[in-house]
Amino acid sequence: MDDQELELLYTQQLNEELLHQTREAITRLIEQVPLEFGLENLIPINPPSMANVPEKLASLYQEVCEYYNSNAIDFDHAWVLASKYGTEQVINATNPRAKKAVKQIYLEDLDSYMQWFPWTWFSNLQFIGAGGFSAVYSATMSPPYDVQPTQVALKIVDEKLLNEIAVQSKAFLPLLFQGLTVCESTGDLMMVMKMSNDGNLEDHMHEYPLGDLDLKTITGTILRLAQNLADLHKVEMCHRNVHPRNIMCTDSDYFLVDYRYATPSKESSSVTALTKAVYGRLPYIAPEVRRGVYTEKSDIYSLGVIIWQLVSKVIFPSPDVLLDGGVSSSSSASSIMGTTMVDPSDNPYRIDPVAGVPEWYQKLYVACLEPRPENRPDAAELCVVLQAIHDKLDYSVPLDRRVTEYIVARRAEAADHQRTYSKVKGIVSASNSRLYTLANLPSTEHFISLQFRHIPFAHAMAPPTTTTLPLE
Predict the structure, then answer these.
(1) Cα separation, 6 vs 8, whole angstroms
(2) Of 173, 190, 376, 435, which has the fewest beta carbons less than 10 angstroms from its beta carbon?
(3) Percentages helix, strand, coil for the chain, rounded to the nearest 5?
(4) Segments of 229-378 assigned E as strands
(5) Which residues bind ATP (predicted)?
(6) Containing structural domain, residue 274
(7) What counts of helices (H) and strands (E) characterise the chain?
(8) What pLDDT shows up at residue 119?
(9) Would you say residue 21 lies in a domain?
(10) Same domain, yes or no, for 415 and 305?
(11) 349, 242, 259: which is closest to 303 by C-alpha?
(12) Same domain, 90 and 57
């Protein structure tokens, strides 16, 4: 046995011993004070045999983490209750309202991703909205081993949300998902997520003055979003509801969220065709969806709209504008199959070229919005091409003043439209996701005034040949 084999054997033995010792130490602590971990229904409560529980927890946590780090081994936070007490016993010890969800977690083999957070660690709950059909709360989480409290979001787990947990676990769970807890008063199982402290991407698009009109910043944002989709598509899942309000901003980074309607890629079209319905937001729904077809390229279409928005800053109004025939006060409308058609040059939904952006950027969003899905890039291909461009850009590349002029003009049009339309229909809100039948799904293709090349992405997107990219 050579030195390399000996080193490998030593590392494996050290890892196993560290894992065994850590689990034993944690188990002893939990069994001494199960109430502190919200596990009194699972483990009988004995008189506490140790004082200063928070200090002991903090000390244990810090010592274990330091010992692992000093041996160049990651600390394992996995949920191991079932291996110690048995799956059925854990499920039976759960609050009755949460049993079905916990059972599903084990059936989906998600328990290895779970962290358990006692309800007593949470305070200052405030209702902040409803994500689809699940209530979402902000809260302060104060683990006894962490000196600094953490702001988190709590979301009630239902069957749709279990699908979201499954998708995030398989793709990129560490980004936003942290663990689970059970509400003490209602018994609901709740997902613990990092609180987005910077709002969502649409919030950023509303900002003025326009501080992010820098090409290096924009391409970096697109790269992170494309990578999010690449991770999801790699595990053969389609998101099915990509839009700017489902892109959360945390610590100057962007994460795709809301996987309630995500489906396996091979089933997405059959689900759409069978239900004859789609849940989504206009105009981010790809044209082929009207025919009952949904693939990973349909997610790319949605991303293409966002890529265009990152330089146009256009915020689309409520779909009621389309459904009611009020897209433009000055347009001549005719009804075709129940859907109002209008002059595409005069409406708040139009997508046209933005003067002043580089040619390669125009090609990028045009390729993603190609009418035929097979001509659009896949997410991994998009990452490769865009990374090469991003790396060659200077540290800061301000966009041409014509981009700002375009943004100002479109915002003035939007304000005028809102004033006109609201006189008839009342306040015009932003576009929202909603359930459409395929028969009543409005088409927005005729609002896109772009020169499509109708060729595959590999041919449409020529790589840059110079290290300095022109602005036009």
Answers:
(1) 5
(2) 435
(3) 50, 15, 35
(4) 237-238, 247-250, 253-256, 263-264, 277-280, 334-336, 339-341
(5) 155
(6) 201-460
(7) 15, 13
(8) 92
(9) yes
(10) yes
(11) 242
(12) no
Question: Of 149, 172, 195, which residue is a domain's last?
Answer: 195
Q: What are phi and psi of 45, to 5 degrees?
A: -90, 125
> Does residue 408 share a domain with residue 446?
yes
Residue 155 is labelled as binding a ligand? yes
Q: Is the pTM of this model over 0.90?
A: no
If asked whether residues 371 and 345 sit together in one domain, one would say: yes
Name 97's Cβ contacts closer than 8 Å, sequence gap at least 6. 186, 187, 188, 189
- State the pLDDT at residue 335: 34
pLDDT for the residue numbered 337: 31
Residue 395 lies in a domain: yes
Instruction: Give the model's pLDDT for residue 175.
Output: 46
| Type of residue found at 447 | F
- Residue 470 placed within a domain: no
**Residue numbers of the chain with a pLDDT score lower than 50:** 131-133, 172-175, 326-344, 464-472
Q: Which of 29, 50, 76 is the last residue of a domain?
A: 76
pLDDT at res. 382: 94
Q: How far apart are CA 301 and CA 307, in angstroms?
A: 10
> What pLDDT does 244 receive?
92
Same domain assignment for residues 377 and 241: yes
Residues 191 and 219 in one domain: no
Same domain, 60 and 85: no
Report how far apart, in Å, the C-alpha atoms of 221 and of each of 107, 110, 212, 303, 387 are.
36, 30, 11, 11, 11
- Integer Cα distance of 370 and 457 in angstroms: 9
Alpha carbon of 30 to those of 19, 38, 56, 70, 262: distances in Å? Answer: 16, 10, 11, 25, 37
Beta-sheet strand order (sheet of 150-156): 122-131, 134-141, 150-156, 189-194, 177-182
Residues in CB range of 463: below 8 A, 6 or more apart: 385, 388
Tokens of 352: 């046209």
Could you give phi then psi for residue 147, rounded to 5 degrees? Answer: -65, -35
Mark whether 37 and 106 lie in a shared domain: no
Ranges of beta strands (E only) in 319-447 are: 334-336, 339-341, 434-437
Cβ-Cβ contacts under 8 Å for 291 (sequence gap 6 or more): 438
Residue 414 lies in a domain: yes
Give per-residue pLDDT as tens, 2-40: 777 777 777 777 777 777 877 787 787 778 778 777 888
DSSP 153: E
CATH number for the domain harbouring residue 109? 3.30.200.20
Q: What are the C-alpha distances in Å from 337 to residues 282, 316, 317, 436?
A: 18, 23, 22, 15
For residues 323 and 436, the answer to whether their CB atoms sit within 8 Å is no
C-alpha closest to that of 135 among 191, 97, 93, 92: 191
Q: In whole angstroms, what is the distance from residue 290 CA to residue 443 CA?
A: 8
